[in-house]
Structure formats: structure tokens, C-alpha cells
Amino acid sequence: MLISQDTLEAILQQSANTFHPVVPFHPAEDKLLRMDFTATNKNIKEEWLLNTETFCSYIDTLLQQKNCTYGIGGYNEYRTIYSRSDVFDAGSSSEEPRRLHLGIDIWGKAGTPVFAPLNGTIHSVAFNDRFGDYGATIITQHQLNGELFHILYGHLSLADLTNVTAGKHITAGEVIGHFGQPFENGSWPPHLHIQVIKDMQHNIGDYPGVCRYSEREVYLHNCPDPDFILRMMQYAQ
After folding, report:
1. What is the pTM of this model?
2. Which residues make beta-bridge pairs with 168?
């Protein structure tokens, strides 16, 4: 049964203090950089978006210059960077491409552990191995106060998919993945894409992380802000 967004958001807000951190983050010690991948960021050059090594260097240099452990952001953000991959293009030049981001990205070092924020089970796993796609992907399923929802973790390490099958129980605080390297994460700089999804709509191992702007309300209704679980955006600068 489809949950109303208000219901799920209220439940996540009420449970905020019970969630285990998704990545190792200590507000008193770690700095977070708010990342901007919209057209307003004039530092982004289209030519280096097409070169993964150059893109990685841009992210690494930015985090080092700002002395930040992670970069973060992207929910409900209209991003120009998706022009780098035909995964997000329309079927024809007259159709609208996908550019609106539906999750939060946490940019950091390859190998950074990813923890389950609450108890649940594995819904599905997949290696979405196209340039610009999720790469290694794990989707978990949870029940909270009687409501069913899912969390998608994209851009993980291929090793994280080993011996992981649908229905496997996971425990809050358990390591379920790691930030993958470009060859296994869809050719992106190392980061985690985390997305809350109410209704998987029969998808297995995959769900759109980017939608057309014209479909914004429909997709945001099904994918509430992951920061209800992360509780990290308040520290971004």
C-alpha cells in the first residue's frame, strides 16, 4: 500500500534520534561542504565532466581546499552534470532529459563504510554497469511504526554485492557497503547516493535517482528527503 509522504516524513522525524549514522561523521570534528551541481556553479566545466579522472580530481581538490571530510547535497536539485551520460538523456532531441536529483549524495574517499541506519532486510541488489549509472547498488526494505519503505544505496563497491541476497536480515549499525571506485560505481568520483523510496513500483535492484523536471511532484512524493534519516545537512557549509 502506498504511504502518504506526510505520514512517512512524520514517522522519520519522530524516529530521528534512533537512526544509526549512515557514514562515519562526527559534527564536532568533521566538516561538511555543501556541494552545488546546478548551472549556478560556474566552476563546473563540461569538458571535465566527460573525463572521470578530471572529475575525481575536482572533487578531491575541493574537499582538501576546504578541509572537509565530505561533500554533501543534491536533494531536489536540478543538476547540469547529468549531461555527461546518455543514461539521463531523452529518447529524442525533442524530449525532456532527466536532470532533477531525488536523493542525497555524500562525496568522500573510496572505501568509506556505509552503515544501515535501522533494522530491515535486503530488498534487491544489482550491478547497474553503464557509464553514469549507479554501479553497485543495494536496496533495503524497512518497517517503521507499521509503514513500509525502502532505502537505495548507489555507487558502492562490487565486493559489497558478494553473498548478499534478497530477504537477508540487516541490523542497525551493520556495514552494508562502501563508497566504490569509478570502475565499479558507474564512473563517478567516489560517493554514496542515498534515496528513500516508498513504493518501488516493481523495480528490482534499481529505481530512478534522477527524473524529468516535469515529473518532479510525482517523484518527490514517492522519494522524501533522505536527510530525515541522515540528519547531516544542518552541518553543511
Report:
1. 0.94
2. none
Picking from 10, 36, 1, the residue whose alpha carbon sits closest to that of residue 224 is: 10
Backbone angles phi, psi at 4, to 5 degrees: -70, 150
Whether the Cβ atoms of residue 125 and residue 164 lie closer than 8 Å to each other: yes
Rounded CA separation 15/107 (Å): 25
Could you identify the residue written with the cell 568520483?
A: 189
Write out pLDDT tens, residues 166-191.
Answer: 999 999 999 999 999 999 999 999 99
Say whether 203 sits in a helix, a strand or coil. Answer: coil
* Region label for 20, one of left (φ > 0), alpha (ψ between -120 and 50) or beta (otherwise): beta
Helix (H) or strand (E) holding 212: none
CA 224 to chain centre: 12
pLDDT in tens, 121-169: 999 999 999 999 999 999 999 999 989 999 999 999 999 999 999 999 9
| Beta-bridge partner residues of 170 | 120
Distance CA 191, CA 161 (A): 17
